[in-house]
Amino acid sequence: MAELSGGSEAVAVALWPPGEAPPAFQYSPESVAGADGQLDPTEVTFPGCPCRSRSCAAPACPCLRRGHSYSSQGLLLAQQQQGQEQPFSRPVFECNSLCCCGEGCQNRVVQRGLRLRLQVFRTQRKGWGVRALRPIPAGSFVCEYAGEVLGFAEAGRRIQAQSPQEPNYIIAVREHLHDGRVMETFVDPTRVGNVGRFLNHSCEPNLFMVPVRVDSMVPKLALFAAADIAAGEELTYDYSGRFRNFPGASREHKAPEEENSLRKPCYCGSRTCASFLPWDSSLFSTPASSPQPFSLQHT
User: In degrees rounded to 5, what are phi and psi of residue 156?
Assistant: First the structure.
């Protein structure tokens, strides 16, 4: 069976159907610095923890001062307050390359990369997509959305250079902090990317995105299973950025009716389909070439 990653992933990424392949791009399991050179996701700026145990424990480990993010099985834990799951995100920091803990530490998940059997396949109406070849439990890390990490100016330049007919892969992630500040991350997997670039949008997705920081403040855009996923099921996430897919948690800017004719149609086929792909008018003026407007709120 054909393989997409060229052996760069620990687990092969299958291709279907035989004899077909998506347009050429450079496969990279992790994000790389963009052509503008503003941000280097491989730079190590965080100090390491002094923990000598096999696996770090809260609250002794400084990497876990906000509490554990993962279960002992490596599943992302639900974030609760007074017994209720919260529609916002708590920052996730994993132990890093300078930490004294072992590679088997419970707080090392996303950095280990792809561990699931996935297949990139041609869909009927949405171009290429991704599906699971084995069942995936809820809370599992599925894959990273990797690509070139860009500054705002370069992301804007690339968006404006696109024609409405070209597929757009650029994602704009905004993290809204509790003190009112907003952190922005722009990732473009058009030229350099991984299996995550083929994930389609759905208005009722089975994945959700969480920015996970390991070596620096430049996050890994990690996708986790929102529910148990069956073998053969297509993997999708909501481009508008609802944390854990909570209703009303999106910060997408609603487009005026007269601009709907310019927007790209949504073919997810869900019961709650919005008919159009999300867009963010606060970033770029043309909805047909707008980036994926992913937005999160942190406590």
Answer: -65, -40
Full-model pTM: 0.89
54: tokens are 């096999």
Which residues, at least 6 apart from 226, have a Cβ–Cβ distance to it below 8 Å? 138, 205, 206, 207, 208, 244, 245
The C-alpha atoms of residue 110 and residue 125 are separated, in whole angstroms, by: 31
134-168 residue pLDDT tens: 999 999 999 999 999 999 999 999 988 988 778 88
Q: How far apart are CA 55 and CA 75, in angstroms?
A: 15
CA distances from 12 to 2, 15, 52, 206 (A): 9, 10, 33, 22
Q: Using an 8 Å Cβ cutoff, are 122 and 20 in contact?
A: yes
Calculate the average pLDDT of the chain. 87
Residue 12 three-state SS: coil
For the segment 18-53, what is each residue's pLDDT rounded down to a tens digit? Answer: 999 999 999 999 999 999 999 999 999 999 999 998
- Please name the residues in contact with 204: beta carbons below 8 A apart, sequence gap of 6 or more: 245, 268, 270, 271, 272
Closest CA to 24 of 191, 144, 143, 149: 191
